[in-house]
Write a structure and sequence with these properties.
seven-stranded mixed beta sheet, 50% helix, globular
């Protein structure tokens, strides 16, 4: 054997270390959540190079716990450590991801999702064994909160400044005033972003999760938009017909038990010249082209969240979170749409413009 060729033992140890790396990521996720909730990241970002004792004072925490937390962060490469001065510091990119709650890359909220998945493990085991579904509202409450908070900043960065302008003529229609439906609106962040940007239009958010609708209404009140934004409990095939100039599906179509029926409802309620905006998790059409970090995240989430909810709704077509553009197009063409165009994309999203 060539000296440069890995032996079976080398490959075994390399793979074992890969799994240890993944377990370590789970550990650091708990530290990330603690750092955000306790204000440790924000205090460190504001202070610059800081000792453990001083950071504990600034954040109102116990120094011994803070020192160990800091060392875990430094070991993960999430913050920097200066041995000569025994101080810790955050680089600008670390601040953007871990401390700046308005950054589109802010990540701490996302850790609520795997925490909820662990909490729901007994339900997942039963679902795998029986084939039953698990509806969105059956998950631990952290699931809805984590998903809503994580997606909010990404939508804030992309929806109004990038995705809507990528649709032919839609911004002009919104400025003039049209009815807009946000199907599967969750906590209403996407709906409210559009409402803030286009005061002449009226917005209707629909969701089947009652707690999310309650929170969406609260968010609308706090934003001063309750007069132009209405949130209602309804599913993707029975929401009211207001002759919408724009119907939006933000990361929700693949969660539906009958996406073709949802597309048909969109066709039936769309005003002449109207547009469907479909935002879905980024995926290529072939499995082998999705085998990377983003695919790993999406396939795992799909198994326990997306497919589980679609099955709970009858599961006539369980797309999963890695459907790919070809399958998404098929859904809308079955519903009578003739125009499907990829208007934009990010490493995490496909953005499709769909018309009859």
């Amino acid at each position: 054997m060539d000296a440069s060729t890995p032996s079976e033992q080398d490959k075994l140890m390399a793979f074992a270390m890969r799994t240890i790396t993944d377990i370590s990521a789970g550990y650091i996720g708990v530290m990330v959540s603690l750092g955000a909730r306790l204000g440790l990241y924000r205090a460190l970002a504001d202070a610059g190079p800081t000792s453990a004792c001083e950071l504990a004072r600034l954040a109102g925490c116990a120094e011994r716990y803070v020192r160990e937390w800091l060392n875990a962060q430094a070991a993960a490469g999430y913050i920097g450590y200066h041995a000569a001065s025994d101080t810790y510091e955050m680089a600008p990119e670390q601040v953007a991801v871990l401390a700046d709650e308005d950054s589109p890359l802010y990540i701490p909220h996302a850790w609520k999702v795997p925490a909820s998945m662990w909490f729901d493990e007994p339900k997942a085991i039963e679902a795998f064994r029986t084939g039953r579904g698990v509806a969105w509202g059956e998950h631990h409450e952290g699931m809805a909160c984590g998903v809503a908070a994580f997606y909010r900043n990404g939508y804030k960065a992309s929806l109004v400044p990038q995705w809507l302008p990528a649709l032919d003529g839609v911004v002009a229609q919104l400025e003039a005033g049209i009815a807009v439906a946000d199907v599967g609106c969750g906590h209403g962040h996407s709906t409210l972003l559009m409402a803030q940007a286009f005061p002449n239009s009226r917005f209707h958010g629909f969701d089947t999760h009652a707690a999310s609708i309650v929170q969406a209404r609260r968010n609308a009140e706090e934003a001063g938009l309750a007069d132009r934004v209405q949130f209602s409990l309804a599913n993707a095939v029975d929401y009211p017909d207001h002759r919408y100039g724009l119907i939006c599906f933000f990361d929700v179509l693949h969660d539906l038990g009958d996406p073709v029926a949802a597309a048909r409802r969109a066709a039936d309620t769309l005003a002449p010249g109207g547009t469907v905006l479909l935002v879905e998790p980024f995926a290529n059409d072939r499995i082998e082209d999705n085998l990377g970090t983003v695919g790993q995240l999406y396939y795992a989430g799909s198994a326990l969240i997306c497919c589980a909810h679609a099955i709970s709704e009858g599961g006539k077509m369980v797309l999963g979170a890695q459907a790919g553009q070809a399958r998404l197009e098929t859904v809308f063409r079955k519903a009578g749409f003739t125009h499907v165009r990829r208007a934009a994309e990010t490493p995490f999203n496909l953005v499709l413009e769909i018309r009859r």
